[in-house]
Amino acid sequence: MKNTFIKFATATAMLAAMGAAATAQTVLKFSHTDNPGGSRQAAAEVFAEKVAEYTEGRYEVRIFPSGQLANDPKAIEQLQLGGIDFTVSATGSYASHLPSLNLTAMPFLVDSYEQGWELYDNSEWLNGEFAKLPEKGFRVLSTWEAGFRSFTTKEPLNSPADAVGEKMRVFPNDMIRWTMEAIGFQTVVMPITDVYLAIQQGTVSGQENPVDTIKSLRFYEVAPNITLTRHVYSPLPLTIAEKTWQSFSEADQAAVMKAAVESAAFSRDLVKNSVDSQLAEMVDAGATVVVPVIGPFRDAVASVYGKARDVYGAEEVDKILADAEAIRIALPAN
Q1: From CA 81, how far away is CA 285, in angstroms rounded?
Q2: Rounded CA gap, 126 and 131, in Å?
Q3: What is the mean pLDDT of each run of 10 residues along the chain (334 residues)?
């Protein structure tokens, strides 16, 4: 009887240990500022599922949306400090750590999603800049989609003349600020998580973001005039803390990279194919959508390229402009 009890207890302990081993996971924190119903959250869920699948359950990616852990600049700092493992943000958000990335926010670099994808996937200059990021404490795994930046304003914005005297929210990025000021706006820097209330209270009269972000964060509710200038292509590099990356085995690095690439494909397809329906939903909710004559906006921002050359050097500016021009020629927009 005693031996039977011992055998039973031993078997139970072994089963418990096996169960614990089977369920043991390393939790990885993923912070972003999109709302739970937005495309970033959808892509993050795909990424988390694939990481779990490709690492055979050894890792759980736990997602924290809506800036729960940090706004965009703070999330990138947390990558460096080890507070989080992943984030996804506009390329310009990373420029405070590598200033040359501001150049990706120069106005009217590309005219279509396909051109933008080619720029981010295969530009020699841009890939060279991304290769410098691990020494800053984080690295790019893939590029998710957000789309082209356009305006939402309280009052109609049909030309740069309508911008004069109006206050426009910007994130901390020289190129975006210069572009807004060249158009005629006064600029106010603030985190995206504060923008809705700031427009509602009249601190600023509008903001600029891709359609997907405008819809997800409901900016059209407080700034119902949507002006589709598409002045900057603004995708979302998915980044990982370098410390986290180096903690993986080579097999797990390959698994996480595979998940990143596949979630990027999902993100690109989702965002590109959602724009028309998102605009229709916002119109149904009371927004007005205008496609302005773009020529005056292009003319207004012409000075930005010269300012970029003065600050970042003509050689760097000319490299990315040359890459963008070659891509526009090879992949003409419809």
Answers
A1: 42
A2: 9
A3: 46 44 77 92 98 98 96 95 96 94 97 98 97 98 97 98 97 93 98 96 97 95 98 97 98 98 98 97 98 97 97 97 97 90
The three-point CA angle 278-266-240 to 5° equals: 110
| Contact status, residue 271 vs residue 39, Cβ threshold 8 Å | yes
Two structure tokens written together for 172 = 């901390």
Name the helix (H) or strand (E) containing 138: strand 138-144
Which letter does DSSP use for residue 60 in this model?
Answer: E
Encoded amino acid at 328, one letter: R
pTM of the model: 0.89
DSSP codes joined into one string, 7-51: HHHHHHHHHHHHHHHHH--EEEEEE--S-TTSHHHHHHHHHHHHH
Torsion of CA 284, 288, 294, 300, to 10 degrees: -140
Using alpha carbons, select from 66, 86, 60 the residue that is nearest to residue 75. Answer: 86
